[in-house]
Each structure stands twice: as C-alpha cells, then as structure tokens.
Amino acid sequence: MTDSTKTATLTIDGQSFDLPVLSPTAGPDVIDIRKLYADAGVFTYDPGFTSTASCDSTITFIDGGKGELLHRGYPIDQLAEKSHYLEVCYLLLYGELPTAAALDKFEDTITRHTMIHEQMHNFFRGFRRDAHPMATMVGVVGAMSAFYHDSTDISDPHQREIASHRMIAKMPTIAAMAYKYSIGQPFVYPRNDLDYASNFLHMCFAVPAEEYQVDPILSRAMDRIFTLHADHEQNASTSTVRLASSSGANPFACVAAGIACLWGPAHGGANQACLEMLKEIGSVDRIPEFIARAKDKDDPFRLMGFGHRVYKNFDPRAKVMKQSADEVLDLLGIEDNPILQVAKELEKQALEDPYFAEKKLFPNVDFYSGIILEAMGFPTSMFTPIFALSRTVGWISQWKEQFSDPAHKIGRPRQLYLGETYRDYVDVENR
Ligand code: CMC
C-alpha cells in the first residue's frame, strides 16, 4: 500500500514535515497523517470528512467521476443483472464469489436463522401502532443484544460469524414485522422454502386468511433492490457502525446505530422523501417551479434523489433502478403512471439545467427505487427499512473487516475549538 518513493511535505512556520503517501489499488493517493500531531503538534480540519480516509478497505470501490461502483472488483451492473442478493452478501463478507457448494451452504445457513426469538414479539407490541417502522427497527435491532447473548462476545471469531449470519437472516423478518405491526395485521412467520426476497414479500403481504403467491418477477425486482443497496463503502451509516464498533460495542448495538443514521433524509431517508416530493409535484407542468425552488439559495428545498457526495456522474445504481421501474410497472400493467412520468421529465429537465450540470448533480439510487416499491404495494414509510435491511450486509462486512485490521483503535476525532478559553466560575448572585 505504501509507495516509499512518494512523500508530501508540509511546511509550518518554516519547519518542514515529510508525510508518507499511500497508494491504493484504485482511486487517489492518500497522505498518511497519523503521526502529524505527534511530530508537528497540529491537527487537520475536515468537517464532513470530504478529504479524509478513515480506514483502509478491500470491499467496495467507487469512482465518482466515472460513475462506477465495484464490489470486490465486480461492477454493480453485472452483479445486479447476473448475480443475486445472497451471492453478493457472500462476496462482500468473504471477498470472493462462492463456489456452488459454498453458496448452497451459505444460503442454507441464512435461511435457517430467519426466525426471531418468540419473546421479541412482545417487544414489538410495546411500540405505538403509528410508530415509523425505522423507529421500531432501531429499537428491536438494538434489543437483539438482549436476546442473543451467545453472539455478543466480539473477541470470539465464531460468535462474530454467528452474529453476522443472524443479522442478515433476521433483518427481513424484523422489517416485515415492523410493517405488519404498523398496519395492525398479524405477524407472518418466515418460510424457509422461499428464497430471501420472496420470503420478505411473503412476510409483508401474506395474511393468515388466504393464500399469497409471490410473483417471481416482483421477487426478482425486490432482490435487485436489495443487491443495489448492499454496500457503498464509507458512507455515513457505515462509518457510524465502524465508529460505534471501535469502542468494542456488540454488533447488534452497532447496527442499530447504523440504522439510526441511515434514517435521515440526506441518506437512506431520501427514497421516502423523493417519492413524497414527486407526489407533491404531481404533474409535469409544475416541474419548472420545483426546479426553480431547488436552485433558490433562500429556499431550503432540494431535489430529493439528486446529488451525491461521491458520484459526480450518473449513480450506476440509478441506471439499473430506472430500468427495473419500467419493468415492474409494465408487469403490473401500470401504464402511464403519473409519478413515473413526473420522475422522467424531472430528470430530463434537471439534467439539461446549467445549475445541476455545473454542480454535477445527477439522479442517485433513491430517485427511482420509491416508484418500484410503491408499485409493489409498500407504503413510503417502508422504503428506508428496506434500505436498512439491504445495507445490513455492508455494515456487517465492514464491521468484520475492522477486526482484521491490526492498527484498529477507537475512533476519536479531534476538533478546532472556538469557544471561551479558561475563566473562573462566578457565583449565581454575582452574574
Ligand atoms: N438539489 C439542489 N441542490 C443541491 C442538491 C439537490 N439535491 N444536492 C446538492 N445541491 C447543491 C448544494 O446546494 C450545494 O450548492 P452550493 O455549492 O451552491 O452551496 C452543492 O450542490 C453541493 O452540495 P452539498 O450539500 O455541499 O454536497 P454534499 O456532498 O454535502 O451532499 C447530498 C450530498 C446527497 C447530501 C446532497 O446532494 C443532497 O442533499 N441530496 C438530496 C438528498 C438525497 O437524494 N440523498 C440520497 C443520497 S444517495 C443514497 C445514500 O447514500 O443514502
């Protein structure tokens, strides 16, 4: 990783400090400032971590300029087309595509962990029925550490492995239960004869009163949504999981922290916010008004589903998602869907607008996912829980990788302090 021939020189008040430059297998070089404070007595300042690598990783690579996303080297469009979610989970967790036998074994392991402890049903019932399913998920996933004591010892690799499998297996069950609870329907137990995506659709849409057949095309679309959201290197929720875990916290608590972070509208909550925005726009003739608002510095409104910290080109996931949206609406016989028409025209007008071109703002993964999910019958409040269940494997893979790093230490950023300097306490009667 280190290219010993390259150094960067920092000069402070005439004194020079040589900093090693690390060369990645792909992407820009990285200046190693780990010894900077010890040697030079200064910190670096980078709110929002726009120029800071917080770790090294071999899992996911994004070339934001090209609009490229690779998992362990494989491009996302190929994985979305040729692979499926559980195979991608294996790839993310273990670094290579599985053999047929390894895949069988992995799928079997995940399938046999899909039920949750029966007592957790009572835990769900403690929530208000109108709780957002993300609120329920944060609580229930955090509570897993109270139910699965035999997989919270992070110093034991075997327990770490079981915790990983449990979370990937149980997250669809928990998300579906959060949904069923919010609509007042009975929980539907997982079915091990169904594949991962079909099982999730079944748990969400089946009722005990009648037979529910999962449409294979919808199941494929669901699986593709899971695949497209599986990992995205050091984004806010993944960094949250890594930071929480750096203190030695158990994996269920760390993933609950990741879910909480994902909920925000600038991150995973954007898919819900995007569909709500498309509905608010309502018709193609109102698009210019909303584009004008997005450009107005005095208006906090932003085009949801547009822009990305890393992609300065089309989000490659958005391309696959757009194609999937067409397929699903076609299958369901939803022709001339007004929301899809607004989305397509909004995308066109925004891409032609110099404001979006200059700032390199393109549609991201959330722009089309909500349209598919709504067509499948999910309410907007379920969009972010579906993102959370898909991203669980990414959080877990990055968490697992953190343990293999010998330089792993507690995350503890420094600050640029701008407050009062030392002053003596003043008694209340003298203030
Ligand atoms: N609509 C209008 N203007 C925008 C938008 C937008 N969606 N996104 C960024 N800008 C402008 C922003 O006002 C700023 O302008 P200026 O330089 O004049 O101040 C400039 O573009 C740069 O924006 P930024 O907020 O500094 O960029 P960032 O990298 O901090 O933010 C972002 C990235 C994704 C939070 C932001 O683009 C955004 O809020 N987008 C809408 C929410 C969204 O779709 N989020 C989903 C992201 S993809 C899924 C995920 O990873 O969770």
Tell me the β content: 5-15%
**Structure summary, number of beta strands:** 6
Q: What is the overall silhouette?
A: globular
- Tell me, rounded to a whole number, the average pLDDT: 94
Low-confidence stretches: none
Give me the strand/helix succession.
EEEHEEEHHHHHHHHHHHHHHHHH
Short description:
By secondary structure, the protein is mostly helical.
Describe this structure in words.
With 431 residues, this protein is mainly alpha-helical. Helix content is 50%, strand content 7%. It is globular, with a radius of gyration of 23 Å. The mean pLDDT is 94. Carboxymethyl coenzyme *A is lined by residues 232, 235, 266-268, 270, 294, 302-309, 359, 361, 364-366. Carboxymethyl coenzyme *A (CMC) is lined by residues 232, 235, 266-268, 270, 294, 302-309, 359, 361, 364-366.
List keywords for this structure.
single chain; 431 residues; mainly alpha; 3-stranded antiparallel beta sheet; 18 helices; 6 strands; 7% strand; binds carboxymethyl coenzyme *A
Helix and strand layout, with pairings?
Elements: E1 2-12, E2 15-22, E3 30-31, H1 36-40, E4 60-63, E5 68-71, E6 74-75, H2 76-82, H3 85-94, H4 100-111, H5 120-125, H6 133-147, H7 157-183, H8 196-205, H9 216-228, H10 236-246, H11 251-262, H12 270-281, H13 287-295, H14 316-331, H15 338-352, H16 354-358, H17 366-376, H18 383-403
Antiparallel strand pairs: 1-2, 2-3, 4-5, 5-6
The protein binds carboxymethyl coenzyme *A.
